[in-house]
């Protein structure tokens, strides 16, 4: 499929002369086909999301039946309302938001110099630095928890949302460096050099030239860091033993095995939990696409 | 080590735990200040002696505050009464939900000790804290003082003649059923033989609206699958291991698990997730369950349609044997307040309180064999709760009886058996083949 | 050339990463050579590694890990490439479509697993309803519990969750290709396949190779989705090394043994990454003369 769509998508189809008596119609047909494929693809990709929302609002007598109905047979808000009544979901979400905010800020603050190092400076050990960043991503998370917990207990940093944000940041800084590096890479040297001529220092060139030209890259870093911290529950469950500090990821993960939480409530929790990242993503979507690699800055 | 020198040994404990302890006391002092006009406040005034403050704060970790909410109020009441009786001791609850409890407590133990004074733990985690990390304090002085005789399942918590944990919740299995659904299918009496159970499951299965049994059978829920499945070595008198010898693929086990599989096949509900199974049970669509008593009293509110018809009967095999898993309380060696901690444990297992917990939360079995001598009402409670008698007629065995030394590898053996058995469930291998490869794998993985 | 600036910039990052990631990793490595018994920790040299050599479950998980990471690299990259190519033309509602196609990436792991578990349920799942339309399919397909199928179901789910990242990155590198190149090729009479081979492919290969490294790392680390969906079963079919390490450490309480497995996993990941990078430098960069990994 990949190869056949390549031609279609890389550029508008070439219209061969003479031989084809209905070039226009053929082109139209091709276009219609493309549209059809895109529509089918969107439907397939969105289906699980649809199903998640459907399961949340489907009246109870239609859940766990066969054949499962494709459409909503009523609108049951019981799941969402009982979820909010029985669990401190709002405070979970708030805690997740705080942790994610810390993660995002720290990640961005450290990824900027890191990306600059990778992109613009040549120094002894720069290869080692690049590899070190990659290395941080390679150890299975399950093995890091215990030493990290040991460390945080000596610092009295357990049950501390800020400290949890720092841990997530530590795992996202390397990714942030790589993403932002490729953004920095696309800024032509001449532009930066022109800045020096105007009296910019090296550091000043980051702030005045590189960052403004890499806004998409920054947005991508923010998104990646946000998703990373919003998603986690393994670290949160080790570091937060105080229920009143629970994050949403932790709260919902602990739902799964609880007898008194009904299936549709779980789905409702899933929807609520997904809402913020999806909204955030949709609102900055254009930047992310550009920022993940800096390619679009042609 | 003997009981008398706890205090000395705890003082010698690592700096780490004493630091956290100090932080702890600081927090409790702050808490006391916040409360304001407590009579003890004057004693707290001199901040230099904060570590020796009159109010002792104990951290009690458990899964009870999380999720199993119907059980928590009874525990809160008992602990609050303890605080009222001991005004200088304050107890703080902490912990994790049951599903992640083992993970988190082991992470803590490995990271330098469990940050708590008193711990409620599932049996395997308790054994591990005792035998592997040596974190617990002997507690036999408490039972001696109270005159209680611990049931044999306590063997799992005994090391070098010391008893390191006292059972408080005995999670016991029996066959529970919905008498309305059985009656509707023509069964006026509960199944008393294996053939009858199978027949009842077949007769009550009307897929996809109603199912004869809900047997956990997915590796995604392998801990709970194993929890239930471990009982099925018992129908033909098998065990999973004897002492240090693994007997996973013994003929008795193969026959027992084959019986389990025939129940599963007859139930018409293979491969469905545990959450969905629970939902089916709660909405009164399942006729029989192999279930634990703890939690059934929750059905009153969670499954109002099922609860009035819920009954129990012993496992329908001749021996009427089933597993009882003992969840105990432990006192951590690293505690700065071992004496107060032991007082709290003593309070919880004091017959009056244990009886209250048992009755309120519907635990059928009290893990001390001479318990009725203290609370004559116990027998009456058991016969008056309509879904309890079956549990009472069951002959209980502990994990040591069916797993021997492999009790310490409870979850690992369970995962190996569950993951292999999945092939038999999906029909790509026989039960004998699955158990045979489980035996081989377990042997190779567990013999270091 | 630069004298001091790089030091000033390096120090905060190195301190931060050193404290929160490198130090814990080193601690983890040390634990692999120790053993705790009755509260006493002692050095045991290579004993944990020796145990590993005789552990069939470990070897099975290594195999599963390779199969899984290989499958994910291929599936993620080809899905990403396919979707990127499909949406890389000027059509109405293009940014809407691109937004929709990226939503799975924004859905957290736990809700993803819950949804797929419901959809794939053999008795009540919508997927089996759809499958029943195919003539000849009439029994309840055990998506998450049957041998081989479970592996495929996991790949499906992980692919769904992760592909937007790859398609977004590939799409933006496609957009960086100057239109003039295609114009010129068209004037030269190059066909569509030819244009892809001579222009599109060489321009995105550096991106693809970087993505391959990331896909390798991300799938190597994949834990939550697999653990909650199948727990590693049936058999060892979906038990990657990340799952096995978690089980050994926190379910079987063999923390030191788990550490030694993690060290082997770390080594494999490092070797795998180095192979990718070397391949990227030697082959791809020489052929396509563009920067990828630094």
Description:
The complex is a heterotrimer of chains A (298), B (448) and C (294). Chain A is mostly helical and 298 residues long. Chain A has 13 helices and no strands. In chain B, the strands form 3 sheets. In chain B, strands 1, 2, 3, 6, 7, 10, 11, 12 and 13 form a 9-stranded mixed β-sheet that branches. A two-stranded antiparallel ribbon of chain B has the order 4-5. In chain B, strands 8-9 form a two-stranded antiparallel ribbon. In chain B, helix 5 runs parallel beside helix 6, helix 9 runs parallel beside helix 11 and helix 19 runs antiparallel to helix 20. Chain B is globular and about 65 Å long. Chain C has one domain: MetI-like fold. Chain C is built from 12 helices and 2 strands. In chain C, a hairpin with a 2-residue loop joins strand 1 and strand 2. The radius of gyration of chain C is 23 Å and the shape is globular. The chains are: A mainly alpha (298), B alpha/beta (448), C mainly alpha (294). Chains A and B meet through helix 6 and helix 12 of A and helix 2, helix 5 and helix 12 of B.
Main features:
heterotrimer; A: 298 residues; mainly alpha; MetI-like fold; 2 domains; 0% strand; B: 448 residues; alpha/beta; D-Maltodextrin-Binding Protein, domain 2; 20 helices; 45% helix; disordered N terminus
Short description:
The complex is a heterotrimer of chains A (298), B (448) and C (294). With 448 residues, chain B is α/β, with parallel strands linked by helices.
CATH topology of chain C: MetI-like fold
| Percentage of residues assigned to helices of chain C | over 70%
Integer tally of domains of chain A: 2
The CATH superfamily of the largest domain in chain A turns out to be: MetI-like
Distance between the termini of chain A: 28 Å
Number of E-state strands of chain C: 2
Structural class of chain C: mainly alpha
Q: Tally of extended strands of chain A?
A: 0
């Amino acid at each position: 499929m990949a190869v056949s769509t390549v031609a279609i998508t890389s550029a508008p189809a070439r219209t061969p002369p003479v031989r084809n008596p209905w070039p226009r119609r053929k082109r139209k047909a091709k276009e219609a086909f493309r549209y059809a494929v895109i529509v089918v693809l969107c439907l397939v990709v969105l289906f699980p999301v649809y199903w998640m929302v459907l399961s949340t609002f489907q009246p109870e007598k239609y859940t766990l039946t066969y054949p499962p109905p494709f459409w909503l047979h009523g609108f049951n808000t019981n799941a969402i309302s009982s979820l909010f009544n029985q669990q401190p979901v709002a405070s979970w979400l708030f805690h997740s938001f705080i942790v994610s905010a810390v993660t995002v800020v720290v990640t961005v603050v450290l990824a900027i110099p890191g990306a600059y190092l990778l992109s613009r400076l040549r120094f002894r050990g720069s290869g080692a630095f690049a590899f070190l960043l990659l290395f941080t991503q390679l150890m299975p998370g399950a093995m890091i928890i215990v030493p990290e917990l040991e460390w945080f207990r000596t610092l009295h940093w357990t049950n501390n949302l800020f400290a949890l944000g720092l841990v997530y940041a530590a795992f996202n800084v390397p990714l942030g460096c790589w993403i932002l590096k490729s953004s920095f890479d696309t800024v032509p040297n001449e532009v930066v050099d022109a800045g020096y001529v105007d009296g910019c220092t090296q550091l000043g060139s980051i702030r005045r030239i590189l960052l403004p030209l890499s806004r998409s890259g920054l947005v991508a870093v923010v998104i990646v860091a946000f998703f990373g911290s919003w998603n986690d529950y393994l670290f949160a469950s080790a570091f937060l033993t105080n229920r009143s500090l629970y994050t949403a990821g932790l709260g919902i993960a602990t739902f799964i095995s609880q007898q008194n939480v009904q299936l549709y409530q779980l789905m409702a929790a899933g929807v609520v939990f997904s809402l913020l990242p999806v909204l955030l993503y949709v609102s900055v979507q254009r930047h992310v696409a550009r920022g993940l690699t800096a390619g679009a800055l042609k | 080590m003997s009981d008398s020198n706890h205090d000395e040994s705890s003082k010698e404990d690592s700096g780490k735990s004493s630091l956290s302890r100090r932080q702890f006391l600081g927090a409790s002092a702050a808490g006391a200040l916040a409360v304001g006009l407590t009579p003890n406040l004057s004693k707290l005034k001199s901040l230099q002696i904060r570590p020796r403050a009159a109010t002792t704060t104990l951290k009690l970790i458990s899964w009870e505050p999380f999720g199993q909410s119907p059980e928590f109020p009874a525990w809160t009441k008992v602990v609050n009464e303890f605080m009222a009786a001991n005004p200088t001791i304050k107890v703080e609850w902490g912990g994790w939900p049951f599903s992640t409890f083992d993970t988190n407590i082991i992470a803590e133990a490995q990271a330098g000790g469990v940050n708590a004074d008193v711990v409620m733990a599932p049996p395997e985690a308790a054994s591990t804290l005792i035998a592997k990390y040596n974190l617990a304090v002997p507690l036999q002085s408490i039972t001696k003082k109270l005159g209680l005789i611990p049931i044999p399942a306590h063997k799992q918590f005994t090391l070098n003649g010391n008893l390191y944990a006292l059972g408080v919740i005995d999670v016991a299995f029996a066959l529970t059923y919905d008498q309305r659904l059985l009656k509707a299918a023509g069964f006026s009496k509960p199944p008393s033989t294996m053939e009858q159970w199978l027949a009842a499951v077949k007769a009550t299965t009307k897929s996809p609206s109603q199912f004869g049994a809900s047997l956990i059978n997915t590796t995604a829920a392998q801990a709970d699958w194993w929890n239930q499945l471990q009982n099925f070595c018992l129908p033909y008198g098998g065990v999973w291991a004897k002492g240090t010898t693994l007997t996973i693929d013994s003929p008795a086990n193969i026959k027992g698990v084959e019986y389990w599989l025939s129940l599963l096949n007859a139930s018409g509900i293979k491969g469905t997730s545990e959450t969905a199974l629970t939902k089916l049970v709660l909405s009164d669509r399942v006729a029989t369950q192999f279930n634990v008593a703890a939690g059934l009293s929750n059905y009153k509110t969670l499954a109002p349609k099922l609860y009035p018809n819920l009954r129990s009967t012993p496992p329908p095999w001749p021996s009427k044997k089933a597993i009882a898993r003992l969840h105990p309380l432990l006192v951590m060696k690293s505690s700065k307040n071992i004496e107060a901690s032991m007082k709290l444990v003593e309070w919880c297992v004091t017959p009056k309180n244990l009886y209250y917990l048992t009755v309120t939360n519907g635990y059928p079995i009290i893990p001390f064999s001479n318990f009725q001598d203290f609370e004559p009402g116990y027998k009456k409670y058991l016969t008056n709760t309509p879904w309890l008698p079956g549990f009472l007629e069951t002959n209980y065995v502990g994990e040591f009886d069916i797993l021997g030394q492999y009790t310490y590898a409870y979850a690992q053996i369970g995962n190996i058996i569950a993951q292999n058995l999945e092939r038999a469930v999906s029909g790509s291998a026989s039960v004998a083949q699955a158990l045979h490869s489980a035996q081989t794998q377990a042997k190779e993985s567990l013999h270091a | 050339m630069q004298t001091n600036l790089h030091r000033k910039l390096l120090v905060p990052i190195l301190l931060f990463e050193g404290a929160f990631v490198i130090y814990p990793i080193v601690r983890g490595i040390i634990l692999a050579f120790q053993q705790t018994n009755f509260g006493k920790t002692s050095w045991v040299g290579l004993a944990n590694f020796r145990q590993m050599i005789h552990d069939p479950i470990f070897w099975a998980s290594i195999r599963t890990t390779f199969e899984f990471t290989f499958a994910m690299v291929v599936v993620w990259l080809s899905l990403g490439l396919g979707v990127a190519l499909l949406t890389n033309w000027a059509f109405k509602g293009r940014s809407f479509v691109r937004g929709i196609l990226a939503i799975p990436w924004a859905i957290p792991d736990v809700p993803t697993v819950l949804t797929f578990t419901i959809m794939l349920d053999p008795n009540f799942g919508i997927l089996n309803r759809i499958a029943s339309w195919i003539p000849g399919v009439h029994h309840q397909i055990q998506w998450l519990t049957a041998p081989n199928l479970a592996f495929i179901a996991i790949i499906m789910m992980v692919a769904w969750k992760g592909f937007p990242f790859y398609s977004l990155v590939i799409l933006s590198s496609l957009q960086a290709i100057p239109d003039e190149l295609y114009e010129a090729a068209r004037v030269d009479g190059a066909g569509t396949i030819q244009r892809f081979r001579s222009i599109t492919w060489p321009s995105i290969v550096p991106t693809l190779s970087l993505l391959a490294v990331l896909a390798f790392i991300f799938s190597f680390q994949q834990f939550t989705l697999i653990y909650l969906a199948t727990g590693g079963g049936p058999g060892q079919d979906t038990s990657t090394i990340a799952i096995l390490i978690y089980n050994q450490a926190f379910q079987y309480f063999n923390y030191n043994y788990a550490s030694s497995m993690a060290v082997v996993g770390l080594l494999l990941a490092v070797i795998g990454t180095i192979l990718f990078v070397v391949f990227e430098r030697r082959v791809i960069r020489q052929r396509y003369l563009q920067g990828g990994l630094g």
